[in-house]
Write a structure and sequence with these properties.
Order of helices and strands: HHHHHH
Distance between the termini: 128 Å
Largest sheet: none
Helix content: over 70%
Number of strands: 0
Number of helices: 6
Oligomer: single chain
Number of domains: 1
Shape: rod-shaped
């Protein structure tokens, strides 16, 4: 009888250990799934930020600093030349010429502002690409806990969104103003030719 009691206790202990082992395995699997889900979510967030940086890089590829500096110089030269010739000939510009010069000078301001921002945009874009790459590696390797990762992610996000906005207000406007520049340039050059006579 004593052996039966010991056997029953052994069976009960075996069942308890089996239950605990299975429970621990399930909890471990759930925890692994949660960690994997968190990792995938972090990587998706970083891919979104990387996408914003790619938009900025695409704009940088379309706009050359030397080109916008040259355009600014051409505009300033043409406006100066036309103003000088109109003054020499005592010609008062009509509303159409005033409007033309206003639009032409507005392009010059855009080019000047973009030229000032160009190098910082390039440098910040490179730095932020590196930062996102480092965060991706950290997300894959789980170097940081969730709270620390979130701090670094939010910092990068803030900087990338500000850079993206700046690029939209400078580089993108330069790209979109291409046809306007071409038309105004032709009109001002035609006016300059008329004033040379």
């Amino acid at each position: 009888m004593e052996n039966v009691t010991k056997l029953l206790k052994f069976v009960q202990m075996f069942k308890l250990f089996t239950f605990l082992f299975i429970s621990a395995s399930i909890l471990s699997a759930c925890n692994d799934n949660r960690v994997d889900y968190e990792k995938q979510a972090e990587l998706q967030y970083l891919d979104t930020l990387n996408g914003r940086l790619l938009v900025v890089k695409d704009l940088l590829d379309k706009v050359e600093l030397a080109d916008i500096q040259e355009r600014s110089e051409v505009i300033e030269h043409n406006v100066s030349f036309c103003n000088l010739k109109m003054e020499e000939k005592a010609i008062e510009p009509d509303e159409e010429i005033k409007r033309l010069f206003e639009e032409y000078k507005a392009l010059d301001l855009l080019y000047i502002n973009t030229a000032k921002q160009y190098t910082p945009i390039v440098k910040q874009t490179e730095d932020l690409f590196l930062q996102v790459k480092t965060l991706k590696e950290s997300a894959n390797d789980k170097d940081y806990d969730k709270a620390v990762f979130k701090v670094y992610f939010n910092q990068a996000k803030s900087e990338i969104l500000a850079l993206h906005k700046l690029s939209q207000n400078t580089l993108k406007l330069v790209v979109e103003s291409e046809s306007v520049f071409t038309r105004r340039q032709e009109e001002v050059e035609a006016l300059a030719e008329e004033l040379k006579k």
